[in-house]
Amino acid sequence: MKRRVFGIILSLSIFISMTVLPQDIKATDISSSFSALSNSTITLNERQLNANTSITTYGDINNDGNIDAIDYALLKKHLLGSDSQGINLSAADVNVDGQIDAIDFAILKSYLMKIIYSLPTGKPANKVFTNTGFEDGSINGWTLGSKNTTGATYASSRASRTGRYQLSCYAESNYVSDIYQDVTGLQPGYYYITCYVQNGGNQNSAYLYAHGTGQNKCMTAIPVTNALNTENSQQYGWTLVTVRGVQVGADGNIRIGFYSDANAKNWVNLDDFTINRESNQSQQKKFYVGGDISELTYVEDMGAKFYDSNGKEQDAVKLLADNGWNIARLRLYNNPGKGRGDGKYYLKENYLNLEDILRLAKRAKNANMAIQLTLHYSDFWTNGLTQNIPTDWKSQIAGLSTQDAVAKLENLVYNYTKSVMQQMAAQGTIPETVSLGNEIQAGMLYPYGSYNNFANLGRFINAGYTAVKEVSPNTKVILHLDDAGNSDKYIWFFDNCKTYNIKYDIIGASYYPYYTGITANKVVDFCNKICARYNKDIIIMETGYNFNKYLPNGYEGQLKNNGAYENYYESSPNGQRDFLLELFNALKNVKDGRCIGDIYWDPVMVEQNGVGWAIVEATNKADTNVVANTTLFDFNHVILPAINAYKYNN
């Protein structure tokens, strides 16, 4: 470790020349303070960490909310023996080793120069967590589990992330890596665990986990590493993995571990484990992983059956829940049917209506899933282009002035929303979240609630919000837009929400690599920006990825390619799985855990005679099923490997 730090320090003078420092500190003072460094020996003054000092962020030494040159200069003053006034000693111990020394100084410099991209955050806990970087060349402090294959889990010195050593898992034949450490002495509360990984992929399972005494295991599946998700975009770099929602009880104990059921010659490396206290201690972090099951009754009635990986027929909802799903999205239309579409197409009658959605809600709740309810306020598909007013509502506003029509629609939205919520409540299926509209970036109930009538749109949204809260105050209201990553679009929309006093709780975003053209890491940057600006959580409402480049008819489906991942994860069952592994882990890295989950679309609308995205008005026949190659079941309705991304993420 010291050799690496000394190498970094050699370029210090370059950094100093570019750094703006407070007036009372001279750059030459900092340079000269390193003249005592010789043969990798640290001779600067060491001050012991005060373990009782609470912190917000490592590196933010003056507690101003930023990590910058002022913090760097204050640390230098402290190391040279100057007055420590204004210094948060806990925040200064950036490598969390219990001492404040030249190593901390060099690490902070590396962070400011963007040589490294992260520092620990939260209350220091690593004083009780030993051998987190395996720098003694062994796994001392860790315990090999009963299932571990002899010789498959070991400390190695192959291009570690920091220092000389790392934890490596590899064997020439099929093997299991099973290693953990029990940590004690933590303050009760909520924590998250991080480590950095390199992973070649294709394991049957590979996940980082943690849990307090008597608590369920919190897990994050390890993604395959590549140039799109590693530090500095290095092909063989390191990826940050985060486990959220870890609860430490009154005993202050936690178990942290890694488990992998691997095939011959699969490999994974791990380094630099940390324990971090969540900044928000008001509630446990929960990460939702699941998908949209709104079309399930339709495809089942058309004859579709679903099978597990062994080919055994299973109830689709139970199969998904047993493999990690904890949320189901249900999209509700007012009254789908012939003559109530867009004139050319319509949605099949008796499906996606309230009766159908109530049945599906019971199935989801019986499988212990949370419910995300989306109200389309239409009889047909809605999105940025199409937001048709329900046919029945059109008749009720016919002949009214614009002012009176808006007032009537406002009342209809309120009454309809409240009625739906009351019926959901009556059968014990209160939704955890309700989305008012679907992809409403250009508004809803056109033309009255379109984007150029934002005041009207606000009235409709607030009417729905009020109705939801009157029935279930704890249900969170989502406003859902398309095009995750387009910060300008979201800022325009939600700034308008602020202007017109529009009420909502959570921001929803659709993310498809094909449509957005960006990676999961770019989505994380976007989430951090938007969550900070509006102080709201965010959820990915829609995600899709091809498991086959073509539909069964040989034509391309709705997703023509895989966008930024086209040359990384192919359109194959394993490619779909690896994309989801990367996405789920990336979203857990959103600051303070403010991304609360991801919902897949469409997981169950499988290839089946009679199933199409819509019914043709002229022929009453189903049009092409354009998402048959993006579901979580193959063309024979067998569950795909992508399900492992859900099974080992929560």
Tags for this entry?
Type 1 dockerin domain, 27% helix, 3 domains, Jelly Rolls, 650 residues, 26 strands, globular, TIM Barrel, disordered N terminus, five-stranded antiparallel β-sheet, eight-stranded parallel β-barrel, alpha/beta
Question: Would you kindly provide a brief summary of this structure?
Answer:
Keywords: Carbohydrate metabolism, Cellulose degradation, Glycosidase, Hydrolase, Polysaccharide degradation, Signal. This is Arabinogalactan endo-beta-1,4-galactanase. The chain folds into 3 domains: 2-122, Dockerin domain (Type 1 dockerin domain); 143-277, Galactose-binding domain-like (Jelly Rolls, Sandwich), CATH 2.60.120; 288-647, Glycosidases (TIM Barrel, Alpha-Beta Barrel), CATH 3.20.20.80.
Structural notes for this entry:
By secondary structure, the chain is α/β, with parallel strands linked by helices. The chain folds into three domains: 121 residues, Dockerin domain (Type 1 dockerin domain, Orthogonal Bundle), CATH 1.10.1330.10; 135 residues, Galactose-binding domain-like (Jelly Rolls), CATH 2.60.120.260; 360 residues, Alpha-Beta Barrel (TIM Barrel). It contains 17 helices and 26 strands. An eight-stranded parallel barrel has the order 13-16-18-19-22-23-24-25, surrounded by four helices. Strands 3-6-11-8-9 form a five-stranded antiparallel β-sheet. β20 and β21 form a beta hairpin. α4 runs antiparallel to α6 and α15 packs parallel to α16. The radius of gyration is 27 Å and the shape is globular. It starts with a helix and ends with a helix.
